[in-house]
Amino acid sequence: MKRGFVDVICTTGAQAYHDLHFAYGLPVKQGHPKSDDNKLHAAGVVRIYDIFIEETGTLLAQDLKVREFAKTLNEKGDFSSADYNYALGQFVLKTAKYPERSFLAQAAKYGVPVFFDSNSNHSIAMNNAAVYLDGKKTDPSSVLDILESAAIAYSSKSTGFVELGGGGPKNFIQQTGPTIKQIFGIDFEGADRGLQITTALERDGGLSGCTFSEGVTWANTRKHRRTWCRYSANIQ
Q: Tens digit of pLDDT for each residue in 103-138?
């Protein structure tokens, strides 16, 4: 981002939420993926594969920070998740001890839009819901996310994407082509190039592992550019 190689990011709200732990210096430890989850739960530890996170010292502390930020929102009209994340990143830059450890904060610093693939299935959204009950407008517009991301793709002279993993963000970033061509009826051939690094098995029809070749039919990627590089990485 600092060197200008990244123009836009789509991430899950979960990735953005857990990214903030590092900015605020909250405890995150490496454990073992085969640990006894009953014992971890009794000890107040939650697990994401081999990552151990304290329920009280990390999650609840992070929730307080997210709600503190959400209460500062003064939006009157609709706003996109990119607008939300820019404001959140600016908040982190001002309030966190280690903002350089957060990709969300650095994206705000360098003016890189960050979209959520979903505005409802993560801890940031859960905290937004709590603040919403206090009368604050905290819910980003999924419609604006679609329109803004499609506008970025359409207005770019050349487009390419790097996918780390798959799932919702992969679908979000690749749906810009069908939005332009299928929904708005504008001639558009999709991205010029793409690279996916994933542990998912490559197979047609899968969200995380669907082939780039399949995406050509949806105008996700250009018809005449079929020389894709794709690597499956089993990260230890």
A: 999 999 999 999 999 999 999 999 999 999 999 999
Residues 6+ apart with CB under 8 A from 123: 13, 14, 17, 59, 62, 63, 66
Residues 6+ away with beta carbon under 8 Å from 176 = 149, 150, 152, 153, 154, 190
Question: What tens digit of pLDDT does each residue of 17-30 get?
Answer: 999 999 999 999 99
Token readout for 53 is 């996170």
Bridge partners of residue 231, in order along the sequence: 197
- Give the gyration radius of the chain's Cα atoms: 19
Q: What is the DSSP string of 121-174?
A: SSHHHHHHHHHHTTT------HHHHHHHHHHHHHH-SS-EEEEES-HHHHHHHH
Nearest CA among 143, 153, 202, 205 for reference residue 174 = 153
First-to-final CA distance of the chain: 26
- The phi and psi torsions of 150 (rounded to 5 degrees) equal -65, -40
User: For residue 190, which of 231, 164, 228 has the smallest C-alpha distance?
Assistant: 228
Name the CA dihedral angle for 122, 127, 133, 138, rounded to a multiple of 10 degrees: -80
Which residue has tokens 């009157």? 76
Angle value at C-alpha 14, between 12 and 19, nearest 5 degrees:
100
Strand partners, 45: 54
Nearest to 221 by CA among 163, 161, 168, 164: 161
Per-residue tokens: 73: 């929102």
Nearest 5°: phi and psi at 17?
Answer: -60, -50
